[in-house]
Amino acid sequence: MVNEEEMNGSGNLMDFLDEPLPDVGTYEDFHTIDWLREKSRDTDRHRKITSKSKESLFEFIKGLLDAWSGWVVMLLIGLLAGTLAGVIDLAVDWMTDLKEGICLSAFWYSHEQCCWRSSETPFEDRYKCPQWQKWSELMVGQPEGASAYILNYFLYILWALTFAFLAVSLVRVFAPYACGSGIPEIKTILSGFIIRGYLGKWTLLIKTVTLVLVVSSGLSLGKEGPLVHVACCCGNLFCSLFSKYSKNEGKRREVLSAAAAAGVSVAFGAPIGGVLFSLEEVSYYFPLKTLWRSFFAALVAAFTLRSINPFGNSRLVLFYVEYHTPWYMAELFPFILLGVFGGLWGTLFIRCNIAWCRRRKTTRLGKYPVLEVIAVTAITAIIAYPNPYTRRSTSELISELFNDCGALESSQLCDYINDPNMTRTVDDIPDRPAGPGVYTAMWQLALALIFKIIITIFTFGMKIPSGLFIPSMAVGAIAGRMVGIGVEQLAYHNHDWIIFSSWCRPGADCVTPGLYAMVGAAACLGGVTRMTVSLVVIMFELTGGLEYIVPLMAAAVTSKWVADAFGKEGIYEAHIHLNGYPFLDVKDEFTHRTLATDVMRPRRGEPPLSVLTQDSMTVEDIETLIKETDYNGFPVVVSKDSERLIGFAQRRELILAIKNARKRQDGVVSNSILYFTEDQPELPTNSPHPLKLRRILNLSPFTVTDHTPMETVVDIFRKLGLRQCLVTRSGRLLGIITKKDVLRHMAQMANQDPESIMFN
Amino acid sequence: MVNEEEMNGSGNLMDFLDEPLPDVGTYEDFHTIDWLREKSRDTDRHRKITSKSKESLFEFIKGLLDAWSGWVVMLLIGLLAGTLAGVIDLAVDWMTDLKEGICLSAFWYSHEQCCWRSSETPFEDRYKCPQWQKWSELMVGQPEGASAYILNYFLYILWALTFAFLAVSLVRVFAPYACGSGIPEIKTILSGFIIRGYLGKWTLLIKTVTLVLVVSSGLSLGKEGPLVHVACCCGNLFCSLFSKYSKNEGKRREVLSAAAAAGVSVAFGAPIGGVLFSLEEVSYYFPLKTLWRSFFAALVAAFTLRSINPFGNSRLVLFYVEYHTPWYMAELFPFILLGVFGGLWGTLFIRCNIAWCRRRKTTRLGKYPVLEVIAVTAITAIIAYPNPYTRRSTSELISELFNDCGALESSQLCDYINDPNMTRTVDDIPDRPAGPGVYTAMWQLALALIFKIIITIFTFGMKIPSGLFIPSMAVGAIAGRMVGIGVEQLAYHNHDWIIFSSWCRPGADCVTPGLYAMVGAAACLGGVTRMTVSLVVIMFELTGGLEYIVPLMAAAVTSKWVADAFGKEGIYEAHIHLNGYPFLDVKDEFTHRTLATDVMRPRRGEPPLSVLTQDSMTVEDIETLIKETDYNGFPVVVSKDSERLIGFAQRRELILAIKNARKRQDGVVSNSILYFTEDQPELPTNSPHPLKLRRILNLSPFTVTDHTPMETVVDIFRKLGLRQCLVTRSGRLLGIITKKDVLRHMAQMANQDPESIMFN
Q1: Which of B251, B318, B643, B712 has the highest number of chain A CBs within 10 A, making it the mutation to test binding with A?
Q2: ipTM score
Q3: Where, by residue number, does the polypeptide cross the bilayer (chains A, B) (predicted)?
């Protein structure tokens, strides 16, 4: 980078440091940003534009454009995230079907598209048409039979392995950051951490492609979490178009929060739920301006997706449901039971998954990621194919489980014995006894449930993109549907029991098993992620009616309470801790009685803090200090004796300033005095030219006294987004507390007293 | 209050101050709370309960109950707020109809109930039945005719005046705080201000009763804002049941935030919108825990209201609408025009209303509140009666304007000329030419619009409960419906114009005027209140479909931008400023380049700060200082010469400590030395017994350096909720900044540079 000063010649050498230093303000990888500083840098920029805009019309328009750039970025994010989600949906549809067969009329059609386009077949036969051929039909000419079954089975596994191998190889070679759901990392990034490349172009590209591959391979994972990551990559991409966002890490995070909202919005077709998810679950700093912009981005994304119309039904939502009967108070009991199940499943899943991931990290297992993916895919495919409920894609399964059995429904789950005398209306079908199909479905579902529970634990955390929403919802939906069918049959056969007689007369449609599936899905998702409001709102947007909000809420609350009783951490927080990211959770409350003096460094017995003095250290002294330590910055005191705090100097800025001075300022040598005061200190006559560095001195470092309770310190770190804080007593510097010290202390205290959790 | 120490006798006198002082922690009226302190007090309480709960089962259960009390309070608030809203709705219905007539079969039935219960009349005739008699019918036996009209007119005015007089008298005599909408004050209270009695039982009772009276009197006001106030009163009432909330002003505000959400939830039947309204518009400190609880309270309130079923249609929402046609891109142009109208109306309303309110405050006008209400009511009633669109209640008017003209609709607004050859289906009616009824309606609506615009300016701010949502929405809905009918007729008569030909074929149902009314209502509400996300979500919950969210959002965004261009303040902020409440808005950004040293007191030339020294002042010195100043507290320094800061002592605690010491500690006299150090200072041999007050010294006062930019200081005040902050340089005390200093400075800077608004 060429400094303007360099081109103009030396000029007034002493003043050139008053120019902004090149490169100041960027952070190093895996470092924490200083929110207060980013904010004040943005205000400076803003002030400059405002004052310039009065000078000419051109500057005025430039100012207006700058003010509007936020909305432009939101629009672009919405458009790209919606488009990518649509493309992913279409590609997944096609590739999932490719595992079973191919469309002869046009190989790029999925099964449904193939038959739908071939002729105007009735809705029930939308999966039957001559153009669509299974592999066995195409290769050996046999659509049915044992050998055809084995051939199809084999090709199903082969395709699954191919997709999975491609995916894991792409991730390993091109973008290692594309693996996982991405939400833990995005939470950490949004809280002010720098992970270079995590939201880069390569990650975007590879994550999008591999997401299609892994979802199509039939692994027990979903695309919802990774879609949030993809949307955030889009956000980061568009940030680089505007210096307002690309040069300010704080402003950039506002855009990323909105992008996360857009991601959930397209994942579920739930814009309001997306905004609340970003607010409740992902974001750290969420000013009201961001709320409004997030909403805009989420809406644009949802409408873009709808105009692509990947589900072919012009519905926005992933699982559209419509129930015909209300729920009754007595049903709250099974709903709450489902909530308990969801909480238990959440706890079980988090514990087992974390244990397995820790094992992967610490043992030789972690050295063979490709082999691991291949093995899990093979097991999944081998076990999944024979069971119709695991063979199909998980979202189709959830969709079927959520559905109410209308009169036209041909699914096995709706195989009830009809009363021949009954006049069938389309919607209002009374409860009926279960037929053989339902009983078959019940044990197949039971097997699917066990399989899903076990395989998901091993799948989440492999080196491929993998979301948790869909598998969690699938577990809950299966359990819920089974409970629902159970209650329905119990009520049908025992109308006279007291608990049923008050609300379920014979011949009435009392129980909707689909609703139970939905409640179960909400409970399991809540148990794993500990979402609350956003979960209920997403579910509310799926059903589109306030009618079922009470069952959903009862299940979500129960599930959260049950899960919280076993441990406060959701899966994302657990992964953040597992990976050791410096994340200061807004939700944890710190309630211990420690003081700043207990946490600050230097501890008792440790060497004293590395400090600079305001006017008595030489350039060499400081260079040695910089070489020997790796602190981000150094407090500046009056003198080593008095230790009165003057300010704080950033390491980066110090290095740059000294480098520049040595290069260009005459007379600045190793034993030049370096001073931070306003006036040049008195020096012996023959001493070399001193170096003034007041410009880089932060005169308002954040301080607390040593008696400040740690709960206040934690609050300050959280709310102001500090990097470090100096501890003083009556102006004398005693020590320093960094964000990592705070996190370490919080972890220590939490381990000492795990019981206090119950009362939060 | 009897101190335990007092009962036990003197004991170790020197130690008794280690016990918490009686009465410490309560704030005085019109003072600001210290959020950090409230929070740490709650943590202390919480710690005590946690440690006690390990001692016995009883304490354990007590601890659990304490942890659950938050949910209990929410449940109670939801139930009471829902019930009150239901009762208000029923009472308003009855009393509004009482102005025109009475039900002979049972006088407590409203018009609709009277006819609905009398016989199974068809829906269209629900307002026609013999049991319901107009006053003229009852008194002179004439239902129609000139004299009957005059008699009815006269009685209408008389009832309106009676209701209004009753309302204003009740407010004046029993609860002056019950007037207005209450939202500006609640915003201020939630930001940490104390207004005693504002949320008291009397206010609750009187506001509920007078709200019914003023709404029934036909004044141009709504019940939505006051319902938020009523719900907050409920919240405050239930806080007093639990010491956790009643004794902690910070925790109390969490409950009040949730109560505000419940208030909006019942006002519109929009629980999610209510929570977002509380988050976006009302609340100051809104942790995630509160979000979840608010949602619970809002849901309980909504369901309580629904089980009361005041609208008789088992709908939750105030205005339920169902449209049969989608909207087209070309319609965005009139929608954006409506947004511009909404923004202009918002600006006009705020400016005129504030000017009028200022006039009321400063001139003799303010001395006759009863007369003012009577006059405005008389004018309203006289002008409103002849016009059918202003005679009925405003919510009925809005409801009619929002409605789509179905085939069964008998309203004047749906008087279109039908094609006799057309086969009429119920829902899908093509655009038709307007009949004479529509033309009559158009000019009546135009008159109603002008009347509403003018009268609302004078109504809002009188000494009666008055909400703004409904009148604003009415203005928007009238304008919107008129534009909608205009566009519809334009499209019908000019199918061949380019702008219509692409989407509006002859015989199709292209334009839904009801949708325009809804968009207009959203635009006007947005212009007045500057709500964004919550506004769109409330409207979304009213319509229950994502379909119309884009028109609503386009209008809301345009309206906010247009209105913001003329001034950043919404009506609530404007009233907060008018009343001079110390409200530090989270939304304003402070972008000026001033430093803490420019704002702190003492200014140049002012006498030095009143400080205490740590060990050299006598009791008398301090008593004199307390008498001569009215500061909330005093910084404590080492000595007057060195001015090194040690801590901060609260005025209240000082007074109490000295009073207690004088009463009970032997030897503490006026010239006793008062010291804050750990060890007793060395004193001359014959000096009186000194008084140790280290216990009341806050050893961790919040400090910033004099070089700290004010934008950081403002941020700290906002985010940490400070009362004051000390300014130091290298530990030497330079001055103090209080919340009021910050507010004053912000106001000064905003006045200096009003242009900077445009770029925010």
Answers
A1: B712
A2: 0.81
A3: 68-92, 153-175, 195-215, 227-243, 255-279, 332-356, 368-385, 441-461, 468-487, 515-540
